[in-house]
Amino acid sequence: MVYNFKNDYTEGVHPRILETLKKTNMEQHEGYGEDRHCKEAIYLLRQKINNFNADIHFVSGGTQTNAIVISSVLKPYESVISTTSGHISTHEAGAIEHAGHKINEVESLDGKLTCKNIQSVLDAHSDEHMVKPKLVYISNATETGTFYKKNELEALSIFCKSKGLLLYLDGARIGSALCSQDNDLTLAQLSQWVDVFYIGGTKNGAMLGEAILIINDNLKENFRFHLKQKGALLAKSRIFGIQFVELFKDDLFFRLAEHANAMALKLSRSIEKMGYQFISKSTTNQIFPIFKQNLINRLSKKYGFYVWKNVDDQHSAIRLVTSWATKEEAIDRFITDVKVDF
Amino acid sequence: MVYNFKNDYTEGVHPRILETLKKTNMEQHEGYGEDRHCKEAIYLLRQKINNFNADIHFVSGGTQTNAIVISSVLKPYESVISTTSGHISTHEAGAIEHAGHKINEVESLDGKLTCKNIQSVLDAHSDEHMVKPKLVYISNATETGTFYKKNELEALSIFCKSKGLLLYLDGARIGSALCSQDNDLTLAQLSQWVDVFYIGGTKNGAMLGEAILIINDNLKENFRFHLKQKGALLAKSRIFGIQFVELFKDDLFFRLAEHANAMALKLSRSIEKMGYQFISKSTTNQIFPIFKQNLINRLSKKYGFYVWKNVDDQHSAIRLVTSWATKEEAIDRFITDVKVDF
Amino acid sequence: MVYNFKNDYTEGVHPRILETLKKTNMEQHEGYGEDRHCKEAIYLLRQKINNFNADIHFVSGGTQTNAIVISSVLKPYESVISTTSGHISTHEAGAIEHAGHKINEVESLDGKLTCKNIQSVLDAHSDEHMVKPKLVYISNATETGTFYKKNELEALSIFCKSKGLLLYLDGARIGSALCSQDNDLTLAQLSQWVDVFYIGGTKNGAMLGEAILIINDNLKENFRFHLKQKGALLAKSRIFGIQFVELFKDDLFFRLAEHANAMALKLSRSIEKMGYQFISKSTTNQIFPIFKQNLINRLSKKYGFYVWKNVDDQHSAIRLVTSWATKEEAIDRFITDVKVDF
Amino acid sequence: MVYNFKNDYTEGVHPRILETLKKTNMEQHEGYGEDRHCKEAIYLLRQKINNFNADIHFVSGGTQTNAIVISSVLKPYESVISTTSGHISTHEAGAIEHAGHKINEVESLDGKLTCKNIQSVLDAHSDEHMVKPKLVYISNATETGTFYKKNELEALSIFCKSKGLLLYLDGARIGSALCSQDNDLTLAQLSQWVDVFYIGGTKNGAMLGEAILIINDNLKENFRFHLKQKGALLAKSRIFGIQFVELFKDDLFFRLAEHANAMALKLSRSIEKMGYQFISKSTTNQIFPIFKQNLINRLSKKYGFYVWKNVDDQHSAIRLVTSWATKEEAIDRFITDVKVDF
Question: Which residues contact C3 (CB under 8 A, 6 or more apart)?
Fold first, then answer.
């Protein structure tokens, strides 16, 4: 029986959510986000970010969220700046370009974007023969397991404002980022420094669902038209509402992320102690140790994971992802199985 | 306490689905349609249509399904023919045009499309200064509660083939259509006469989910790229698989539709007996009685429904929708409340 | 030798334009609209409309102009209202839908749009499940040869403003409209009542070129980005500048249109005198007489024209188009050839 | 009086074209590419490439051509591979992305694409979570003045075929490329190794116009619908026909390119002799010498050119472009003005 470390959406949904789905199942509700549960979830999220002015909408998945947010923000000739490893750059089948917008991609070793990166794009764009960069896309946690510190996000925010750029944060793994042991940022602070962001449910205990939080007033108008036109207005929206209420009414969301992080930390510390290197310094729920090929082959018989990157002829980095559902005994077993080789 | 006849997605999900979600919750699965439950659901659906060659994919909602199917089928300059009351024509916020395609709309009193309708569109399109009609869109059941008889669908199918047109059937309410007392068509027959269609879960007992069945080989290639690019590839696809297995492993899907139809029939027969007219002759789960304004006002205090169309100064048609979850006592109460006026 | 009444772009270009092209040919100029001739043309046009605040751009053709203007004005979920006979509705191969926008088409017998037409579209659109009508498209002259009187355009303008709609006038044949004997509108007045419009050169003596005049400040920003992105920023823009200077520096534009109208009027009066009917009452450069089939057959051996519409089994309306280049002897010959039948 | 080396579209049009426009001006012609001159031009071009099977269409400009060709070739999820310096990558205001397609950009020092570049993109794209690379875009001459040798183009062609990729050549400056002193490729050979390409008129003596030559049968169907929908079907298409007939009936096109190249060569040799470096080794009509800032400042008072790239604190590369209309005395003067500094 193979144990799966491939993803953080490998198991179903936190059991408490299933219980509430059952309990409320025969209630009659309006659809498309107008139900009582969505309203309660919106209230809770506004409370969490301490901003009762934010517009909040729920959507099924991350690619859909990114495409809708970005295309709702940009005019046809405007572009979005992202790292080359950004989810929108490589892992969304061209959804952003399909929506009509160029992504100005910049290289970044640790998956994070800096003011300098952004400035280099601005410098290269001068007139109407080129696109007009307008939106900055960052993910927190990033696709390589790193996250933004308070001062880094603040600097980006100030820089973007000074340049007339908008800042969008992809929070598919925001739980893991904010629960990292080295994190010094709160959800409320984060929300003040971006124009729009989303809180990912799918990768932190929900069966599906991402919450879009629009902070900047200029981006709010008629957002539901965008949602409907892109096929994102779910008929039985109660499913979103119920899940986000359960996740946020008593901070279950953060406890789940803490568990995922703790499991990843146990893995990474043990692997590090054995002398292995990593391709990025991650304290979130994705880690990328570098192993010899024959160790990878052996592990792959008992565990599911992706080979992320060839490092040299005999070594590759693999990606190990933990989640709210990861069992500690699986971590222990994996560590033991690596040790055998040691 | 208002009882809601507004929609067939007012309650949650058939309880058996919740049970199976719970039972399978901690199983580890691949995502994006590669899980065991989706595979089982695909097997069951292929069996139902007696075609093991069909490609089957699952998507969250109807608008998304229509946009993806239609844009995957058409070249940029090709158009889709639909009735003006077709869901894609009016109730999808321009999703088809947003995907780049004109809808050639034709008037239809009963919501059904005929060969003559299609021919009139072909006659009006001659050269490259106009769009090129390529796809025919029908819904079954239609938006006005009618459905296609066997000979009608066969005629459309033969006509389309003879004209080089493709035929797509929107089955958001296909359960109700196929379980109508006057229906003479099976799911397997229907599937032979279209190039692609979808079976709607959301409006017949699922919490979300529509199954796209691609019959025509030419439309199958790389369909998953379309799904991903449009943000429709759900991470925890097991949710789709589990639901469609439950709905089709013992024909629960049809039993639920039969219940919805029975409830609508009881309503419409009783209302008809009292001498009221309807704007369409429906034997599916949507009925459209014409009431006086003051009766409508009175009913609206106790029941949720949409006023569909003004008929004259003092009369309007309302829409009453029943579902798998509609309670017979609510029907009885409604009939009594209409009678009071009588 | 067949004489062609098919179109108003059958001959080349007014000879004076060729002369100026030759005279200025070896001048060195910046491209993309930054040349001296474009600047002079813009100055002249601003003078004509008595508005030095208008933004003016030049584009190669009408379909391109319509697609760019409309998509620059609308947000993704917004739609444009037009008659079914509007050029954008039927004769642009779906260019507007390709740009992502639904056209709300309304029937109109004379090709003109009324406030009532517009209100009927507004009434039918209530929420985010439908598109949001935002722009009103009219052509002047219309596709059936009619044109807007002063009070009609003023009424549309006031109505649109009161409803938060924008008004766009397609002036592919604006010369002919403003030079109709019954016209009571000036170019300057017209420009005050619309948000944006274009003056068509191609159909009134230019070899190619339409001038877009943006009146409403909100529609001006970054318009050149739209032009470039849609491939409409011509490298040797001097061609546009030179032509519009020649056409407007001494009102040649209007004299050409007057000639076209005079030729059409001579045709229509003579035909009318012989007792023939027309499908529309036109005093512009397109007329639509109804002839018997055998007369049409006979005429088609000596003249080029389109059969526009079948009227009954034995009669059809044909379209005859005159232009700046139409020769009076061809008109006389045509009349004689019709008379033979008489 | 500043002499302009900014572009190859600074002057008007070759005088012989103006003569023919005048001579044929009052001929009556069908529009939209159906005129006699277009037909003759198509015949001549087919003869030149020795392929009477090629489909040929005329379009106003290069950005429009690239957007139409690329979007007509690709399915929504397919991408195009280009160098970062490719015209479509940076200088078309995102027109390709606006048409829905990602450009997979690869770095290239000399502006040329290699099989290795392409393979690196293929290696990075594995499944439906990413776009599917399908088309290879090259420009000849490139944006940095280099061009493809016979064996290089042949290698690309064979490689593309072996990988199921299509090859598209942007010939905005194809005249200059094929007339370079080091060129060993004929137009006919080139046409055999690509699936589709275009011959640029605008930058080699025409007032506007690019000829699209579709070689691969699979790309031909309904191409005129694409042209119309994108606003590229010009009413008075005779302008295209007349120009391409003049340019190709006696190889004027190549003589004009030879002149442009000769002027550039004289410039580059003289500058090289003075010991200056260039950022690319160009034998076409664009050269990029590296000058000190104060020399650049001085030259800019007498000549128009773009500063292309900062090389270090005190040096920049400038771009000098010659054309069919460049006067040898201007070249001589420029050389003298550089020498002063020497």
Answer: C302, C303, C304, C330, C333, C334, D28
Taking residues C35-51, what's their average pLDDT?
Answer: 98
Residues with Cβ within 8 Å of residue C109, at least 6 apart in sequence: none
Chain D nearest-CA distance from C152, in A, is 30
CA distance A238 to chain C (A): 18
Q: What is the pLDDT of residue C155?
A: 98
Domain A3-9+253-341 CATH class label: alpha beta
Q: Residue D287 gets which letter from DSSP?
A: E
The amino acid at residue D92 is E
Chain B residues whose CB is inside 8 A of the A229 CB are 92-95, 98
- Which class for C231: exposed (0-12), middle (13-18), buried (19 or more C-beta within 10 A)? buried
pLDDT in tens, A255-290: 999 999 999 999 999 999 999 999 999 999 999 999
C98, C102, C124: residue with CB nearest B94: C102
Chain A partners within 8 Å of D90 (Cβ): 124, 130
Sequence ranges of the domains in chain C: 3-9+253-341, 15-252
CATH of B253-341, one of 3.30.565.10, 3.90.1150.10, 3.40.1280.10, 3.20.20.140: 3.90.1150.10
Q: Which amino acid is at D75?
A: K
Q: How far apart are CA B108 and CA B173, in angstroms?
A: 19
Query: Looking at CA atoms only, how far is residue B129 from chain D in angstroms?
Result: 6
DSSP-assigned states of every residue in D7-22: -S-SS---HHHHHHHH
How big, in percent rounded to 5, are the helix, strand and coil portions of chain C? 40, 20, 40
Residue type, B94: G
| pTM beyond 0.90, yes or no | yes
Among chain C, residues having any CB pair with chain A shorter than 8 Å are: 32, 71-72, 75-77, 128-129, 131-132, 222, 224-229, 233
User: In this complex, do B128 and D75 lie within 8 Å of one another by their Cβ atoms?
Assistant: no
D77–A97: do the CB atoms touch at under 8 Å? no
Structure token digits, residue C288:
């639509």
Contact of B131 with B104, CB cutoff 8 Å: yes
A121: nearest CA partner in chain D: D90
The ipTM assigned to this model is: 0.97
- Smallest CA-to-CA distance from D325 within A132, C28, A30 is with C28
Tell me which of C97, C123, C310 to substitute to probe the interface with B (most B C-beta atoms closer than 10 Å).
C97
What's the average model confidence in pLDDT over B287-302? 97
Q: Which CATH number fits domain A15-252: 1.10.443.10, 3.30.930.10, 3.40.640.10, 2.40.10.410?
A: 3.40.640.10
Minimal C-alpha gap between D94 and chain A (Å): 5
Residue D157 has pLDDT above 60, yes or no: yes
Chains meeting C at 3+ CB pairs closer than 8 A? A, B, D
**Two structure tokens written together for A80:** 């979005």
Domain range D255-341, its CATH number among 1.10.10.60, 3.40.50.720, 3.90.1150.10, 3.40.50.2300 = 3.90.1150.10
Which residues does chain A have within 8 Å of residue D128's beta carbon, measured at their own beta carbons? Answer: 93
D→B interface, C-beta within 8 Å: 32, 71-72, 75-77, 128-129, 131-132, 222, 224-229, 233
Touching A: which chains, 3+ CB pairs < 8 A?
A: B, C, D
Beta carbons of D226 and B132 less than 8 Å apart: no
Q: pLDDT of A287-312, one tens digit each?
A: 999 999 999 999 999 999 999 999 99
Q: Nearest-CA distance from C128 to chain B in Å?
A: 6
- D342, pLDDT greater than 90: no
pLDDT at C342 over 90: no
Tell me the pLDDT band of B342, cut-offs 50, 70 and 90.
low
DSSP structure class, residue B2: P
